[in-house]
Amino acid sequence: MNRNVKELVKQMTLEEKAGMCSGKDFWHLKGVERLGIPEVMVSDGPHGLRKQAAEADHLGLNESIKAVCFPTACATACSFDRELLEKMGETLGDECQAEDVSVILGPAVNIKRSPLCGRNFEYFSEDPYLASQMAAAHIKGVQSKNVGTSIKHFAANNQEYRRMSCSSEIDERTFREIYLGAFETAIKEAKPDTVMCSYNKINGEFASENHRLLTEILRDEWGYEGYVMSDWGAVNDRVKGLKAGLELEMPGGNGSTDKEIVEAVKNGTLDEEILDTAVERILNIVFKFADNRQEGKFDREEDHKLAGKIAAESMVLLKNEGILPLKAQGQKIAFIGKFAEKPRFQGGGSSHINSFKVTSALDAVKEVAEVTYAQGYDVKEDKIDEALLAEAVQTAKEADVAVIFAGLPDAFESEGYDRSHMRMPDCQNILISRIAQVQKNVVVVLHNGSPVEMPWADEVKGILEAYLCGEAVGQAEVDLLFGKANPCGKLAETIPYQLSDNPSYLFFPGDGRTVEYREGVFVGYRYYDTKEMPVRYPFGYGLSYTTFEYSDLQLSAEEIKDTDTLTVSLKVKNTGNMAGKEIVQLYVADKTGAASRPVKELKNFVKVELQPGEEKTVQMQLDKRSFAWYNTQIQDWYAATGKYEILAAASSRDIRLAKTVNVVSTTELPIYVTMNTTISELLENSKTKPIIEDMSSSLMEHMGGSQEAEEGNAASEAITPEMSLKMMENAPLRSMRSFMGMSTEEIQELIQKLQTAAEEN
Question: Is 291 labeled as catalytic in the residue annotation?
Fold first, then answer.
């Protein structure tokens, strides 16, 4: 149906237009019955449908409909599987159509700056490229069913502590490369219907009234066309927010902010055109859903099976000293730990799903093998129950293999607060160590939304990271433990040995008023790998029951312009005896030295399925952004001319193949010549280089660099040509007064000559 939304807005009263800019209640937008504008519902997500009825609340305290809880983002990101995320999105879209939900709130793409953020379970990765790819796939899947998404929380919401008022203090380059990066690509590629702005301030200004963020960057630069809604209760100044680009305030209040909008238009402090544009943007999305209603499908049993499949693709095998897969017959197996019986499979807060059923590992294993079970610990409080501990140790001792199901209880991580440490409950750590003393064959299965310290890692033979893998978690765990499925997930974040290793350790979570992002672009593996710091498990790491061999790395060109696309291909072979999937990661290492950059950065990846002995060629593309960094001087992305290494890797620490490409920049950085411009800066600029080269030998002579070294000549030994060259390169133009006897006037004439040359076309 073709609607003329502009004409519709013209027919609305000022009060009706203002009313469209806030919710009717917690989950509904207002309608205008006389004009045929329907009320539509939005609902929490992103890994399941949390549709609430009358007793609505934001943090999930009140009951919602029975739904399917898919694996959370901390898990699905480890799949590195765009198609899988799109399939999950399509299923969520079907469920929303069936339940008459117009927008599902998600995905959440905030960067995992610290392992302590209480909401990390809902976020994808420490890496902006991986987060953007997972988010884009999710959005495309949901919106293929004519249901909207709301990418969140825009932007720099990387902690729960004082999230409604604290200011994230970030330099421009870090903001662009890390914290906006995940949003930018997903918004440009997948075009989410809505964007949810965050609670926090960014460099002193609330995200909800940040014109630069919501209009200049989001709309003017990125071309965004949907509408921006607030996080629930994030609005500070409603009229200022509307001017900045915040169209919809959620949830609906008592109508007071609608009155503020009306009053501002009447007294001339708000241009009515701004209000009209906001209403148009909201109505475009409202009618996109209302005019394209589909017959939704919410088959909870089928969707539960899909949740199990996604879980199996997402879990990460961290350690396997020949103990896995387990044998269904002829092996006495003990399952130990409360999470074997009642798993933790999702986080707390606004994304909490009322799951229609949950499959535990104890449920699922009944179809595969007989196991003994001991609870071992309680999750209500972190205290050792000697009776439970003794029973668990004895059960493990009598078995051939003990599988311990451990992790973080609900109270340890949730929306609303951050973790205070990176440890698991003491009662669980002690349980694992005690069992390892009496049983040499121990496997630990972890349930957690963010990394944990593993003091017992060297004492056990196997570790399976299940993260928070949704309501079918137990089925996936059993399929992987017994080899019915082959582990193929890889870590979407680094697991450090201890919290103090994390680059944000000294600055997180700030003093409550501000939090300084002083680690800059060195977040996650960008820091650990550049610093060459040992970690427990690196970014991109994950084991399989088979092995893979990489070969024949090929680049489509040895030299490209930064406007070209480079095609990278390589062969991957399954050299083991079980079918499996390998995630090939493509990193780029900038060797130009033009800026301080991480030693390598993820720029593409592909997941390939291979039968035993099978070999396939995989291809990936790299574009300008794959090589570029954000240059604040030109306020744009810049790839310096020079060499870049292309690294094909199994993890950030497991580089299998490497080749070099030369990139030629089509952007010449502007140079503003002053008395303090250095010789090296002038030599790097193609237009000023010839002028300064004519003078450089003379300058070196004056610095003593041309003296012929004579044996026993103390002066020549003290002042080497190498030293003179470096001194010359680092010398500012003003040094020519001291070393070459030039007058200030002569230097100013030289500066003018250099500046004129630099500005020539």
Answer: no
